[in-house]
Design goal:
Elements lengths: L8 H13 L7 E2 H8 L4 H9 L12 E2 L13 H11 L12 H4 L4 H4 L2
Parallel strand pairs: 1-2
């Protein structure tokens, strides 16, 4: 963590994972929304937390997408295709351009987060 945030990454990651576990099957959330809900310093930290998950984790990492409603590209492997296949199996639909309609599939719904 940066000097501005002396919090241990373990407790921060646990807060992030707790929020991701709340995303229902067939819905998605963005890195930014999860960061806000978990009081994380920003969306990038949520990405780091997702990347730190061990194989076999019960955290539904596949339900976290970028702010455009897209699966973020990875440096290596086929995990972005795996993520898409899992989401499609959960009932999430992608446009021909590979985007998810966040108004339809986004969690929490915009009405619930508006103040």
């Amino acid at each position: 963590m940066s000097p501005k945030n002396p919090e241990s990454p373990d407790s921060l990651y646990q807060r992030i994972y707790a929020q991701v576990r709340k995303i229902p099957t067939g819905r998605v959330s963005t890195y930014g929304r999860i960061a806000k809900l978990a009081k994380a310093p920003g969306p990038r930290v949520v990405g780091y937390a997702m990347a730190a998950l061990r194989s076999g984790s019960t955290v539904p990492w596949q339900r976290v997408v970028n702010h455009k409603g897209e699966v973020s590209l990875r440096k290596a492997g086929d995990s972005q295709w795996r993520q898409r296949r899992i989401l499609e199996a959960e009932g999430v639909h992608f446009s021909l351009r590979g985007k998810i309609d966040l108004k339809t599939y986004g969690w929490p719904s915009p009405r619930k987060t508006a103040k």
